[in-house]
Each structure stands twice: as C-alpha cells, then as structure tokens.
C-alpha cells in the first residue's frame, strides 16, 4: 500500500519536473506570449480593482473590516488585471481646506497602515490622488453630466453635510462636488470593482449614471463599476467602541491599526456592552452590544479553539450570555486576544517600514507615476470622444483649412 503511494508520488514528482522544464523552455522561446497570458487569463479579463481612503487620520478597525482586509486578500489572490489603492487627499481637502497640514501628516500614516496591513507595491499600485492632474480634468467634464439636485439627494453627502455642520449656506462647492470627483477617481482607471463599505454605494450609483451618460453622448470609453461589499454583514459598518453607529475619528471611538496592545486593552476594557447586564447572572443582550458586534466581525471558530476552548463558536458564547452567568470581562478578554492576534504582525511590519520613511515616499512616487500613465491614456480617449483633442485631430485641421480656403 505505502509502496504504491511512493511510486505515485515519484511519478508526480517526475511529472512536475518535466513540466517545469517545459515551462522554462517556453519562457525562453515564447516570451511575449507567455508574458501576455500571465496578465490576461479569461477568468479576470478586464478586471480592475480600485479603492482608496481619505488621509484624515490613521486607519482603524472600521477601515480594516470594511475594506482593507478584503483588499489584501484580493491582492494576494491575484485574480485581476490591475489593482490600485490610493490616498484621496483631494477629497480630504474638500472639508479640510483650512487644514492642509493635517492631510499632509496623515498621508504617511495611511501609507504605513497600508503597507503594515500587507498591501504590496509589487502587486498593487499605490498612489496619491492630488498628483494625478488628469483626475481634476476628468472631474470637470463629468460635472456637466449630473444635476445639482441629483447630488443633493445623495444620502452619504446628506449625512456628511449634517455631521460637519455644513447645513444652510456653508457647504463648500468642492465638497458638494466630491461625488463627481470620486466618479473620476474610479473611471479614469476604468475600474470594474470597488471594494468599499456600504456608505460608498451612493457614490457608485452616481458613477454608473455618469458613465452611462458619458458613453451615450460621446463614445463608449468609460466603464461601469460595481461595489464589492464586505462579505461579513457586521463588517459593513462597524460601530465605535462606545456602541455608537460608526467608528470614526471625530467621535473618538476608534481602535487604530497602529494602537499598542496596551491601548487596545484599555479601549476594549471600557467598551460599551449591555446596560441591563449589571450582575453576572442577569440575562444579557447581544444585539447592540458592541463587544458582540466586534466578535461577529472578527472572531473565527479557530479563535475559540485557541483562546476560549470552553465554547465551540460564537453562537455558544452568545447563548450563554443571553441565559445569564457570563460576565462582560470574560468576553472582553477574548475579544482583546482576537484583535491583538491580527494587529501584532501589523505592528511589527509597521515598525520595519518606519525605519525608512524616504523609501515610503519613493514607493508612492513610483506608484503615482504608474497610475498617471494609465490616467493619461484614458484622458486621451476621453478628449477624443468629446472631440476636444484639437491639436491631435489632423482631420479637423484639414477640414477647417478646406472650409476657409473656399
Ligand atoms: N470616499 C471614500 C472614503 O470616504 C474615499 C474614496 C475616494 C474612494 N475616492 C474613492 C473609495 C474611489 C473608493 C473609490 O473613504
């Protein structure tokens, strides 16, 4: 029996060796063919992933479960033609015009968070929005294709206007137009797939409308994108440690990816749970209980095996909590372990990257140059479609010459 397996194994090894040799030979003789087939297989033909963050602060767990975790997985699966991740500093300036220094400081924080989380500049293009002038150019033309009232109805813009106290007369025009600028971010790179949280869906809707308008009026140049929401439902909008609707810097309820283990424990320890769960034996509620929402978003059955083997999985833990007899502290200790387990490798990577900050700017510069090449190509097509590429339009020049010669 084991001899048989051994022979099969040997055969398999030989076969692998044989194929490796063939591959090597074909690589020498068919370089262009091989290189091409590597970039475009049928499965991911034309798949372009793009997403970004406003560099207004360090990234937190909400960013991580809402988008960053997925991005790293996508990047490593490699099932795409191109992947872009960028820092939306132009968008950040739309409501921070008086504080550019804040954005400037946070570009590097977000870049470090990206790299620490596992984004790899060899696999995906990292860039800075403001350094791509083609984005501003495309925004200008797209603005003609959407009405003021359409943007006014955008629920995300509405919420943000309220949150920033911009009601009445004080909405900056640039801020108001940011959904159009975001549509340019997406379409300049012909992105098909935008991994983002639920709150970005209204932006994607506007983008698709703009693409349809543009393509219908001019020529089919732009591509309609789809949002890719987190699979995990609770991850789509992670509440803050205070149990409030959203984790957000301005609410001061964040756990940052760069927090130390001690920071994390302090925050988890004082997390909002169930105000009616006063004594150990009181029955508890898991709905609206931030600790359980976080466990929903982060914990796996594996974590139970490693840190809390008395329970098979989260359902069992929840049942016990509901029945009564399970203390908040025990749940918090477990959550702390779960969170620190994936933050620890990030902290270590971050510390490595922090040793060479000029190199981080270098990475961003290279990525920006690569992104600009793609953007310039699309803008050529856009100008051509809009018939405003006057100087490259030999036919136009010839026609006009003829017209005036008469
Ligand atoms: N609006 C996004 C945020 O608030 C950032 C962003 C700007 C973005 N442009 C984008 C996200 C394009 C996805 C695609 O974080």
Overall strand count: 5
Q: Tell me about the biggest sheet?
A: 3 strands, parallel
Number of helices: 18
Percent in strands: 5-15%
- Class of secondary structure makeup: mainly alpha
The average pLDDT is: 90
Rounded to the nearest angstrom, the radius of gyration is 26 Å
Task: Please list the strands of the largest sheet in the order they lie side by side.
Answer: 1-2-3
- Percent helix range: 55-70%
Distance between the termini: 94 Å
- Secondary-structure element string: HHEHEHHEHHHHHEHEHHHHHHH
| Ligand catalogue | tryptophan
* Low-pLDDT sequence parts: 25-42
List the quaternary state of the chains.
single chain
Q: Give the overall form.
A: elongated
Task: Itemize the secondary structure elements and their pairings.
Elements: H1 2-29, H2 31-39, E1 48-53, H3 61-77, E2 82-87, H4 89-93, H5 100-117, E3 125-128, H6 133-142, H7 148-152, H8 155-163, H9 173-176, H10 178-188, E4 193-195, H11 201-217, E5 226-228, H12 261-269, H13 290-298, H14 301-307, H15 314-323, H16 328-354, H17 357-385, H18 394-405
Parallel strand pairs: 1-2, 2-3, 4-5
Helix pairs in contact: 5-16, 6-10, 6-17, 10-11, 12-16, 13-16
Structural features:
406 residues; mainly alpha; three-stranded parallel β-sheet; 18 helices; elongated; binds tryptophan
Written description of the protein model:
This protein is mainly α. The chain contains 18 helices and five strands. It has helices at residues 2-29, 31-39, 61-77, 89-93, 100-117, 133-142, 148-152, 155-163, 173-176, 178-188, 201-217, 261-269, 290-298, 301-307, 314-323, 328-354, 357-385, 394-405; strands at residues 48-53, 82-87, 125-128, 193-195, 226-228. The strands form two sheets. It has a three-stranded parallel β-sheet. Strand 1 (48-53), helix 3 (61-77) and strand 2 form a beta-alpha-beta unit. The protein is elongated, with a radius of gyration of 26 Å. The N and C termini lie far apart (94 Å). Mean pLDDT is 90; it is low at 25-42.
